Task: inverse folding
């Protein structure tokens, strides 16, 4: 018999859920931030996410090593990034259209290749029990934190530092903000964008592996349910700032965790309505952050959506 | 240096010499090749021919980095600052040896020390996008100086600035050039900037160096004349006659807007072939024709667009169909356009008739009516009909060959008056005539054509009929 925490239980479940659920959002949004900072939009990250989830699960199942699964998922993601970049490097190709095509291709391919892995159970990623100080199992459950979440925080901080303090960061921002300047400086726009898209794909692939190897921790076709697309919208709300990406990912995670948290205290009416919270949040945030009067503040000016 | 883009020669054997501390202006209209020249210097384009010498040594510039290495830096017409970055970030961004990790504290110190030596004040922490145009341009220039460039190439840097901002920036650069800190190449099409700031100037037109020199030796009139292309230019034109013998030999000539160039010569020296080539009746063997600086091929569409009109000799056989009506002959240039052309590929007889009536009245053609056959007209009235057709659409270029041959005094005066009026309205008139007196009366300049070449040229004011007459008969 667990002690009843009442309304606090909901809050703790939402916080715990936010931490658990936010990780894929965080990885995809950081990856998309990096790609968009270089001047390209990769809408295919949803497909990359699903491919990452499938391949990570499959590798973990086949080799018994979930971390190898994470790595392979990242590699597959980088491959999808390369494909996106290579197509966009051709003349007169629209990156949005290519992204949508790769989104459909990635999910379709993952469903096709992933059929044999829906039933078997693969080794999952371990977690750190940061809630051990508490007597409450709810709190302990909420603070079972995955190493990828911690790595994501470090990654967000690192990305911000890289954008401000390193040659790579400055060059990526130049490519995304003023293509003429990048050309004038003698940098290859295609090269920079290709690498940025590949790195973004890598992160999205890793985010996908988290879905299948940690939470929810299985592979099935409804696993992502649009989280990759929401993460792309999240980038806009986070104003292309890696630190904001982290906070907004938590917010989206909390919204996603709201339905299950309420269910856990027995509040089951309107279950599907609460489960729709992240989608509603996406809409609300995008409407709120858009304006007919000015361009998106902070948007890299070379993005097709900025032009 | 020479640079071709496909069939287009954007830069044709242009040379440029820069002394240390020079302030050299490159002047030219749009498309004159100014940007192509400096882009070849900066390594964006690989020149098809030519060399780049720095301190007497030849260098191959593989790309912008190679040019930076030689100390060349370029400031573009459009800003290349990254708007979301701070001024400090923008300053450091241009470094070719940009370190993998930027040590901001040390870099800030270097920047501040550098800025203390500069005449502009700037705030390093402001976002470049928030600066005014003049400020941005200053940062662009500061950036190049900060990066230690010796030769500063500015591509129309003042097009986005107010005159005061432009004067301030160019003034500082002139001072720095005078002190020998930099050498400045200024691309511009503004005469004022050349006169006020440059020591030397090179004028480009259609990819070629047309002239230049020390600015103090040149008047604005000289510069204007160099910069603006002649309305009609014939370049190294060679044309064969019907027997496949060379009738026009590598002939070049230029006629400015509002000018009559008289071509004197005994007939049979290639005049007819020249006119036929300009009229599109004969293909040249070699050479080209330019109208307002652009390549001209005498197709119907280009004639119409460029408004090139021709009064050939013997108009009855060269420019008319004698069995058609006067109105139809008058409509040869525009029967396929509204109002005469109506939808469905049909012609409006009424519009044709009305247009004929109007021109007959305006040009005083003595005829029974617009629907009379052309061969009912006298020679003078046939000439008037052709003149009416060719002049009624305000020509930019008019080529006339012996337009008054065989006409009476009144008709001659009338036709000469019309041609003068076209010239005064800004047309470039190429006037070929065997009648030297007529040329002496009408032409602004006179050239003599002999055996397919131009053998003599003179301004009308200085023309001596005896010398002209002599050169018409043989080489001088």
Result:
């Amino acid at each position: 018999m667990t002690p009843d925490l009442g309304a606090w239980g909901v809050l703790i479940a939402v916080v715990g859920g936010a931490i658990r659920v936010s990780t894929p959002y965080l990885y995809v949004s950081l990856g998309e931030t990096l790609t968009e900072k270089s001047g390209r939009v990769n809408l295919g990250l949803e497909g990359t996410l699903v491919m990452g989830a499938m391949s990570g699960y499959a590798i973990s199942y086949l080799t018994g090593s979930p971390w190898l699964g994470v790595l392979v998922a990242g590699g597959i993601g980088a491959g999808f990034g390369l494909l996106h970049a290579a197509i966009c490097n051709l003349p007169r190709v629209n990156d949005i259209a290519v992204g949508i095509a790769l989104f459909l291709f990635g999910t379709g391919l993952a469903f096709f290749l992933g059929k044999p892995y829906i039933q078997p159970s693969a080794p999952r990623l371990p977690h750190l029990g940061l809630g051990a100080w508490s007597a409450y199992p709810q709190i302990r459950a909420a603070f079972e934190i995955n190493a990828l979440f911690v790595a994501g925080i470090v990654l967000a901080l690192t990305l911000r530092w890289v954008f401000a303090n390193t040659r790579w960061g400055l060059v990526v921002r130049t490519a995304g903000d003023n293509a003429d300047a990048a050309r004038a400086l003698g940098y290859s726009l295609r090269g920079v964008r290709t690498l940025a898209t590949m790195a973004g794909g890598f992160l999205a692939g890793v985010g996908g592996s988290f879905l299948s190897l940690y939470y929810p921790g299985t592979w099935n076709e409804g696993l992502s349910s649009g989280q990759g697309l929401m993460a792309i919208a999240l980038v806009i709300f986070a104003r292309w700032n890696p630190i904001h990406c982290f906070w907004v990912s938590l917010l989206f995670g909390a919204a996603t965790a709201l339905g299950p948290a309420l269910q856990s205290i027995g509040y089951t009416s309107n279950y599907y309505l609460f489960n729709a919270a992240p989608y509603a949040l996406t809409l609300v945030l995008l409407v709120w952050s858009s304006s007919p009067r000015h361009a998106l503040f902070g948007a890299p000016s070379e993005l097709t959506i900025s032009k | 240096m020479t640079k071709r883009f496909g069939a287009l020669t954007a830069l044709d054997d242009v040379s440029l010499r820069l002394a240390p501390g020079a302030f050299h202006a490159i002047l030219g209209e749009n498309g004159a090749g100014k940007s192509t020249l400096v882009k070849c210097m900066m390594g964006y384009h690989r020149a098809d021919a030519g060399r780049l010498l720095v301190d007497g040594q030849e260098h191959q510039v593989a790309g912008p980095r190679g040019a930076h290495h030689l100390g060349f830096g370029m400031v573009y017409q459009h800003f290349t600052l990254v708007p979301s970055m701070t001024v400090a970030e923008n300053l450091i961004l241009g470094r070719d040896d940009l370190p993998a990790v930027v040590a901001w504290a040390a870099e800030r110190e270097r920047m501040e020390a550098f800025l203390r030596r500069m005449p502009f004040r700037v705030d390093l922490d402001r976002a470049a996008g928030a600066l005014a145009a003049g400020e941005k341009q200053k940062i662009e220039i500061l950036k190049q100086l900060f990066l230690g460039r010796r030769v500063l190439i500015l591509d129309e840097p003042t097009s986005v600035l107010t005159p005061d901002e432009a004067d301030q920036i160019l003034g500082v650069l002139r001072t720095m050039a005078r002190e020998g800190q930099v050498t400045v190449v200024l691309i511009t099409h503004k005469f004022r900037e050349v006169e006020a700031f440059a020591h030397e100037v090179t004028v480009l037109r259609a990819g070629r160096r047309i002239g230049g020199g020390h600015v103090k030796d040149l008047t604005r009139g000289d510069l204007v004349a160099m910069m603006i292309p002649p309305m009609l230019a014939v370049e190294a034109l060679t044309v064969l006659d019907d027997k496949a013998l060379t009738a026009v030999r590598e002939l070049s000539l230029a006629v400015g807007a509002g000018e009559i160039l008289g071509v004197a010569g005994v007939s049979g020296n290639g005049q007819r072939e020249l006119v036929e080539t300009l009229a599109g009746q004969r293909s040249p063997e070699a050479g080209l024709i330019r109208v307002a600086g652009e390549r001209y091929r005498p197709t119907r569409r280009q004639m119409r667009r460029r408004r090139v009109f021709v009064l050939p000799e013997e108009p009855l056989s060269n420019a008319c169909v004698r069995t058609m009506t006067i109105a139809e002959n008058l409509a040869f240039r525009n029967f396929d356009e509204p109002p005469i052309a109506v939808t469905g590929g049909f012609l409006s007889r009424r519009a044709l008739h009305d247009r004929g009536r109007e021109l007959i009245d305006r040009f005083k053609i003595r005829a029974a009516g617009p629907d009379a056959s052309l061969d009912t007209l006298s020679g003078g009235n046939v000439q008037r009909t052709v003149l009416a057709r060719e002049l009624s659409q305000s020509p930019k270029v008019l080529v006339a060959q012996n337009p008054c041959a065989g006409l009476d005094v009144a008709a001659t005066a009338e036709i000469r008056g019309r041609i003068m009026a076209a010239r005064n309205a800004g047309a470039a008139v190429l006037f070929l005539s065997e009648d030297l007196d007529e040329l002496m009366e009408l032409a602004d300049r006179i050239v003599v054509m002999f055996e397919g070449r131009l053998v003599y040229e003179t301004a009308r004011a200085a023309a001596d009929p005896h010398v002209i007459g002599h050169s018409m008969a043989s080489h001088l």
Q: What stands out?
A: The longest strand of chain B covers residues 246-255. The first helix of chain B runs from residue 34 to 41. Chain B touches chain A at residues 63-65, 68, 74, 76, 78-85, 89, 92-94, 96, 98-102, 104 (CB under 8 Å). Chain B has two domains: 3-227, 232-320+391-473.
